[in-house]
Design goal:
16 strands; eight-stranded mixed β-sheet; 22% strand; 417 residues; Rossmann fold; 2 domains; alpha+beta; RNA-binding; BirA Bifunctional Protein, domain 2; elongated
Length: 417
Amino acid sequence: MKFQTIRGVHDGLPAVVARWQQVERVARTIFHSHSFDEVRLPILEQTALFTRSVGEATDIVAKEMYRFVDRGGDDLCLRPEGTAGAVRAFIQGGLGRAGEQRWFYVGPMFRRERPQKGRLRQFQQIGVERFGAAGPVADIEMLTMAWSLVAELGIQQVRLELNSLGCPSCRPGYRDALVAFLQQCEGDLCATCRDRMATNPMRVLDCKVASCQQALTDAPEMLHHLCGDCDTHFGAIQRGLDIPVTINPRIVRGLDYYNRTAFEIVTDQLGAQGTVIAGGRYDGLVQELGGAATPAIGFALGLERIGLLLSDPPATRAEVAVVALGEGALIPSLRAAEQLRAAGLRTIHCGGGGGKRQFKQADRCGARFTIILGEDEVAQGTWTVRNMGEGSQQQCDPASAMAQLVQHFATTRTSKE
RNA sequence: GUGGACGUAGUUCAAUGGUAGAGCCCCGGCUUGUGAUGCCGGUUGUUGGGGGUUCGAGUCCCCUCGUCCACCCCA
């Protein structure tokens, strides 16, 4: 019997994790510069949290959750997304009175979908949430932060698409107008769209069936039905944004809690899974989940998916290798390795034994220098330092060897970054 | 959930129904205190798994697991 990961769940082996860390490092730098703090939230939550927030009728809740009853009889699930839990934590922690909250998190999410490239059943998201800011400035800052994240990662050929979904005072009116329109052209719509007219008419807008899109050419747009406040808000965002934006009136978030700003950063390099970052405003959610009315906005990105767009990060390699020649050199060589590590040098010990084997290992691990300790060196209290690139080596006293190595790597490290 | 392509050594790939192979990697030797180049030699498979057809199956059929693509959904 051979064990293997279950469908849509992948191992993070070193080469892959290096990629994730590259994304995380850039993200953390940007988030910290905007004064966002990390939170770590549960993976297991009550199922009701998601049915209430994401929406009973959404695909995520209706057919993609890993849901079970635990031994105590509680209805639980593996979180399919991060915002609901963040809002729950915000309310539970009593942070509504603690001033504006700026949070981010990194962690696994679970959705039982059919796997594809860029779509896994267990995947990691970086999420960002900001509570307490209603004005367009917050939207502009969030969009800018998302955009600079993509830019900093060197990802090319992406575009920012923006829409407004209105609010409880203007969306019902739009919805009625849309339904009226859809009823007129009902005969031209596909079966799913006809069903959605009743359950979620706005989802009809992003149907990909050609005949539907044709029928929808003259469909009313939310942007033309925004109330005064929503229209002002949307206009202010566009004026304040210093990045190229495509207005896409067909962006409809698949989660029910969004209002006003909805956006995606998309690429066409990933086939059907082209959304790299997605987010929007959810001003009603905190209240919906039992907290005091609190405006909020957030976005999320999939680590594995964005990782597909990154060029290979340089493998992290050892800087110094230690070779011990002869039994008597073994213990001193271990001490030498410890000294090198204490000085901040990334060091591997080649394990003693055959010289050929050890030098081969020193070469393979990428070390630029090898410290050689044999009976002679031990007797004289010296190290032999071999420059692996040049093939040259010299015997010197440990203190000055260390100083030179530290100096060398201090300069090469900074020139690389 | 629907439709389709694919699955052979660690890896990338071969093999008209007739003995499962090659490159790279890895290991050893030439060189027991010297790697990366060179030469010589070596290991490696229940052909994803299970059943069936056949004298004979990597190859054909069925089931199953996984990967990928499209739909769908979304990060």
